[in-house]
Amino acid sequence: MPSGIKDKVVILGxxxxxxxxxxxxxxxxxxAEAFEECLQDxxxxxxxxxxxxxxxxxxxxxxxxxALPLSMALRLPNIPVSxxxxxxxxxxxxxxxxxxxxxxxxxxxxxxxxFEKLKDVGYGGLPQRTRGLTNDLFFPNLSAPxxxxxxxxxxxxxxxIDKQDLKRAMAHVSVKSHANGAKNPKAxxxxxxxxxxxxxxxxxxxxxxxxxxxxxxxxxxxxxVTTPEIAxxxxxKDLVSVKALQxxxxxxxxxxxxxxxxxxxxTTRIAAxxxxxxxxxxxxxxxxxxxxxxDCFSITELVTMEDLQLxxxxxxxxxxxxxxxxxxxxxxxxxxxxLKCFGHPIGASGLRMIYExxxxxxxxxxxxxxxxxxxxxxxxxxxFPYQNVASISIIGRHGI
Amino acid sequence: MEPVxxxxxxxxxxxYLPRLRLQKQAIADANAWFDSSLKGLAKGExxxxxxxxxxxxxxxxxxxxxxxxxxxxxxxxxxMASSSMPFLDRQNSVVVAEALNLNTSGLRTMDVASSQRAxxxxxxxxxxxxxxxxxxxxxxxxxHRRTRCASREEMLYGDGAAAVAVGTxxxxxxxxxxxxxxxxxxxxxxxxxxxxxxxxxERWIRDEGLMKIIPKAVESLLKNAxxxxxxxxxxxxxxxxxxxxxxxAKVLGxxxxxxxxxxxxxxxxxxxAQPILLLAHRLEQAAPGDLxxxxxxxxxxxxxxxxxxxxVQKQRPTLGVSGNLSLGRPESNYNKFxxxxxxxxxxxxxxxxxxxxxxxxVIYRNKGLVNSFIGGRxxxxxxxxxxxxxxxxxxxxxxxxAQVDHxxxxxxxxxxxxxxxxxxxxxxxxxxxxLVVFEGGGRFLMDxxxxxxxxxxxxxxxxxxxxxxxxxxxxGFRKYFWKAIPAQ
Lengths: 400, 488
Hints:
The complex is a heterodimer of chains A (400) and B (488).
Chain A: E1 10-16, H1 27-42, E2 51-55, H2 68-73, E3 81-84, H3 90-104, E4 110-116, H4 135-138, H5 144-159, H6 163-181, H7 195-199, E5 203-205, E6 208-209, E7 219-226, H8 228-233, E8 240-249, H9 253-256, H10 266-279, H11 284-287, E9 290-292, H12 298-307, H13 316-321, H14 338-341, H15 346-361, E10 375-384, E11 387-397
Parallel strand pairs in A: 2-3, 2-4, 9-10
Antiparallel strand pairs in A: 1-7, 4-7, 5-6, 8-11, 10-11
Helix pairs in contact in A: 3-15, 6-12
Chain B: E1 9-16, E2 20-23, H1 24-31, E3 45-47, H2 55-67, E4 77-81, H3 92-99, E5 108-112, H4 118-131, E6 137-143, H5 152-156, E7 160-167, E8 173-182, E9 188-189, E10 198-199, H6 202-225, E11 232-236, H7 244-252, H8 274-285, E12 291-297, E13 300-308, H9 320-326, E14 329-331, H10 334-340, H11 360-365, H12 367-372, E15 374-378, E16 384-385, E17 403-407, E18 412-421, E19 431-438, E20 443-448, E21 461-472, E22 477-486
Parallel strand pairs in B: 2-14, 4-5, 4-6, 11-12
Antiparallel strand pairs in B: 1-7, 1-8, 2-3, 6-7, 8-13, 9-10, 12-13, 15-16, 15-17, 18-19, 18-21, 19-20, 21-22
Helix pairs in contact in B: 2-3, 6-7
């Protein structure tokens, strides 16, 4: 049993650009916006960064391949920079790489930065693109909401839930995130919405309506990591450290072997189990203060509550409607607005979640600050319900 | 021209009609302001291909109806007849053969085109192959012609396919005699690079063509076969002229009631497929001993005479023409018909602009899955999986290189989860897809088509069908793959 990452690496600084339709910005501008905040927060100079990882999901419609975009945007001093890509979970991948680099002793201070410039495609939603020449021969003709809508039919069938009841719980997920996003000055969507409006929105992919979908945004987010010792030597006091970093990747079992029923995310369950073990968490329900999960669609957030063992199997609908995950609930979810309203610049999202955890744990989340959070969990999911990558990080106050 | 030995004949037949049935009144309503004469043709309905159907996909369905879905069937030949094949240079019948997962070693394939009698000529060749002792031969005729807006053809033409297998075992209709006459009578034509037919006055076609060429050919055949006209029980003459079959019967001395219903108000005129479709329809109704005379007309005339055997009432297709007729779904959206046939410059949206290049080497490597819907079965643990893979998907097994081909095209499945996607580009939105779990093992995330939204949810039974997956209009290619269709 490996000793794990717990408390070996701390976040020295974090930054995040404003997310949204940044028509006036190049990707490089977004990177600089996030990085300047991060560098200032870390209290170091650029030259102290020894290695960097860039997360971008969609290169063809963005900045192209490789890690040059990051290195050149920030004029990094010829340090090693690598690009990581793992669908929508790319941001957490960059964070994982930087954290492991520090933990291994390969470098003292490392940068993870994720970004995406998505709003130059000419239409709403994610850009239509190839899924690989072989996959294109037989992959169903699906959009992202279409793929995740599969969860809704699977969930409904498994628990015998009425379609309208599920729609109402899904609507509550979005209403809650809109309320949270309205309080976040960096969020893409800052308007509160009513349940009625959500329920009456145009259908995108049965039963997912417009307001069940997250925003497609431009944006960048980043974190600088180091060891607790170095952080202290730099004068930092209330440290925020990494408690667990787990990634689980599908191998085709869900879509290919007669077991998965479409009602949950197989990889999230595995990654959660591993992460709790790595962080030494016995009872997630009482130990986790808050979550930022991959709410690309409301139904994803709903089933994720069960996959993270926060709601019982089949119990998420009730918990959601009871407000367990609302800002004033037992375990607030998406206190920053989530993908739904903060926005979803693909490569940035995992790091945006970590940014929010870092702010909350430092008591710097402004109007949306939660009372005394201790442990936060981020869940960053990429791909499709039936084949995907699920990345979970647990971030908390150092030493608890 | 000699009467052939009687042991050769039709051993099986089948048909396919697209489920969509365009109401002819809808065409007339849209166009009568321009040509009021169209109102006179606005009776009944006509079959209409969905956007993802063409002569290849319909041929596969008709052959499946005729032959069943048993994989690796041995046939000597597969002949496809059509005047609207999707490929001018890529043998269409080979695609059909692979979609049927026939044993293609030693299989002779052939496309017969360029005439409305392509199918009857193809059938004569199939009979020759069987008569030569080479084995069973299959003839499939399929048609999907495009027509100009507000044309007579638009009112008249329907889409469909029919197949017959000929051989010596289990003959349900003996081949009695055949006769052919070639003559360059051009009632209409479609030349290279043109999308639409150009035709001549219908009165001339009737009086100088049908009424003169067909009687001569029929008389020659009957004389040679030693059969009297009044003995004919079923007289198949595919033509848009509703009154002509009865008129011809009268001229020839054939009983008037023998003249077959041309299905003009339920199918329309399915071009080269029409004689075989009508033959199939008559076989469904024939009694043992009935003589069936089939005419193919186009730049001459083919005439074939069959005699039904006792087997005709036992060896039935899965659906046949009657079964297909009963599966129709009325469609009164004329715009949809025009869109599916690419007759409009339609704004398909930017998502439709994605490059759909066909990577031929990739398709070839994957043709087992793509053309034949073949998966893998692990010889170590028996797990069926799709696609076939180097490692077994069963997490408790994971055996390497242990899978054998496992044909899945005939399997039934149930929908485990699904959605109707309105964001992704589809010619017929919303795009239905979902996870299909197959009886006997295996599952696949796949597109669905012909879904009736009122009667569809998780648990629905489906079968899989060869359909168009994508059209690369830039380069003129179309990709095919398998889609799930809910059982009706």
